[in-house]
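Progress note, sequence design subtask.
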C-alpha cells in the first residue's frame, strides 16, 4: 500500500496511523497462527531475510522477499512487470517500506521494518518493465504458475539454519496496474 492508502486503511478503522508507518509504503501479508506467533515473539534481528529474483518463460521478472524463522518461511511474491509494484520496490530501496504480517483468520497483526539495504534492492529495478499489452497479457496468464512454484517448500533455499523448509506462507501482490492497462486496451505508462 502506498502511504496514502495506509492512512485511508487506518481511517476506515477509526484509528490514527502509528508513527512507524507514517509516510511509509506497506507490504501486507498473512501467516499461519504458529508462524505468526513465532515471528511475533522474536527480536527483529533474529528474523532471517532473503531477496531473490526469478524470471519466467515469457520474460516476467518476480521479486521474492523471504522472512524466515527456524525452518518456516513467509514469502512475498511481487511481479516486477507491474508499474505500481515497481513504485513499492523503489520505496523499499529508499528504506520507506514496512512489512505488516497478520495472523490468518485472526485479528492480530505485527509491523516490522525492512532491513534490506539499497545496494541489495536497486539492481532489481533494472529488470524490463513491459509496455506491450500482448506481453502483459501473457505475463498475467502465466502468474498462477509462478504462485504454484513459490508455494513449494524448497522453492527458496533456507536463509536460516540448515535443513529442509517445513512451512511456507505466500503473500502475492497482484499486478493491478498491469491488468487495468490491459483492460483499458493499452500498455503501462509511467
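Output:
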Amino acid at each position: 500500500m502506498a502511504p496514502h492508502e495506509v492512512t485511508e486503511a487506518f481511517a476506515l478503522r477509526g484509528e490514527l496511523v502509528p508513527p512507524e508507518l507514517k509516510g511509509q509504503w506497506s507490504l501486507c501479508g498473512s501467516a499461519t497462527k504458529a508462524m505468526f506467533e513465532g515471528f511475533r515473539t522474536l527480536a527483529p534481528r533474529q528474523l532471517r531475510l532473503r531477496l531473490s529474483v526469478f524470471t519466467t518463460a515469457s520474460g516476467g521478472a518476480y521479486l521474492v522477499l523471504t522472512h524466515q524463522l527456524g525452518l518456516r518461511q513467509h514469502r512475498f511474491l511481487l511481479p516486477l512487470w507491474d508499474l505500481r509494484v515497481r513504485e513499492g520496490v523503489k520505496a523499499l530501496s529508499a528504506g520507506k517500506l514496512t512489512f505488516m504480517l497478520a495472523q490468518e483468520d485472526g485479528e492480530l497483526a505485527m509491523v516490522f521494518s525492512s532491513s534490506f539495504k539499497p545496494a541489495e534492492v536497486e539492481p532489481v529495478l533494472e529488470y524490463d518493465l513491459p509496455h506491450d499489452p500482448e506481453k502483459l497479457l501473457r505475463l498475467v496468464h502465466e502468474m498462477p504458475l509462478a504462485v504454484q512454484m513459490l508455494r513449494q517448500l524448497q522453492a527458496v533455499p533456507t536463509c536460516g539454519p540448515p535443513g529442509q523448509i517445513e512451512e511456507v506462507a505466500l503473500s502475492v501482490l497482484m499486478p493491478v496496474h498491469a491488468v487495468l492497462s490491459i483492460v483499458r486496451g493499452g500498455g503501462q505508462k509511467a
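Residues 3-183 form one domain. Work on this subtask will continue into the next period as scheduled.
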